[in-house]
Amino acid sequence: MRFMLIVNPFSGKKQSLEILKKIQPLIIRSDIEIDVIKTCYSGHAENIAREFDITKYNGLLMIGGDGTFHEVINGLLNRGDHQKIPIGIIPAGSGNSFMNDLDIADPIKAVEPIILNKTRLIDVMSLQMGDETRYGINLIGWGMVTDVGLTAENIRWIGPIRYTLAALFQILFKKSRKAILKIQNKAIDTKFMFIIGCNSIHIGKGMKMAPKARIDDGLIDVVVVDDEISRFRLLRVLPKLYKGTHIFEPEVKYFQSDSFSIETNQNDVLNIDGEIIGKTPIKVEVIPKVIEIFATR
What is the pLDDT of residues 195-231, one digit of tens each? Predict the structure, then answer.
């Protein structure tokens, strides 16, 4: 077998090259040839996945985090030849949210399904923003979720704890926004703290934002908090994110749907798979089992 391996040297704590040294011998000993390409700029992984000669390979591997995976998915789903290939995710990011759902947050463990050639099909979210279409694998967030992402990016040097610190900062400067959420044949027109659509359970570093989510159930789990919640209540609810018990709080609404949309009075920025990209209005739809990944669960 022969695999293309994309390595993002800038991912997370910049440990990708060290991880490559550890996993490369394991792969080669399994009679798998690998061609390694290191990314040099933002969007490079997406360009590689969109343009490489897919007919020469049995799989596309990546060493990186949620952002790298986001790029690879968008590259593959925007190929002119519409060809697909199994993807192997070897985590090296700071959050590795999606990898937690697959129980492959450890890089060495992530190599096992690749060597064993074990795969499964997963859903992807189609994100329509005006004339632009992108694809999300983990989350699409608006409101405080985006604010937390922006703050966390500005304190990236702190490490994984930055997600919690960013959330605390945003709670302190609590800000709500008006939007129309359309879901399950309803139009909810009010002020929200945040709206987040999840394809997987985890976001950030171990937060179980959508505990009912499954990556292959054909549904998007949408978590909503309106602006009636106080700062004190937000501080009480935040720790419950790590156990997924926040969904039982009265201020939290939980939906499961194959689509939803967010409309706002202005073009608000969005958090897509941890990347601050895109703007409202946005329409989100699930594409069931469109991507094949190496995984044992």
Answer: 999 999 998 778 899 999 999 999 999 999 988 899 8
DSSP helix/strand/coil, 73: helix
Cα-based distances in Å from 218 to 3, 45, 198 = 29, 26, 12
Domain limits, CATH 2.60.200.40, in the chain: 132-289
Query: Which tokens in the block code for residue 14?
Result: 């910049």
What whole-number distance in Å separates Cα of residue 43 and Cα of residue 242? 31
220-226 and 252-257 as β-strands: parallel, antiparallel, unpaired?
A: antiparallel
Of the pLDDT bands very low, low, confident and very high (cuts 50, 70, 90), residue 93 is low
The tokens of 158 are what? 């702190």
From the list 3, 188, 204, 168, the residue with the least C-alpha distance to 85 is 3
How far, in Å, CA of 244 to CA of 208, rounded? 5
Residue of 31, 35, 53, 66 with catalytic role: 66
3-state secondary structure (DSSP) of residue 96: coil
Q: Which amino acid is at 222?
A: V
Domain with CATH 3.40.50.10330 in the chain: 2-117
Rounded to the nearest 10 degrees, how much is the dihedral formed by the CA atoms of 36, 101, 107, 160? 100
For this structure, is 66 an active site residue?
A: yes
H runs (alpha helix) in 155-212: 162-172
* CATH code matching the domain that covers 2-117, chosen among 3.40.30.10, 3.40.50.9100, 3.40.50.10330, 3.40.50.620: 3.40.50.10330
What share of the chain has pLDDT > 70, as a percent? 98
CATH of domain 132-289: 2.60.200.40
By C-alpha distance, which of 177, 179, 221 is closest to 203?
A: 221
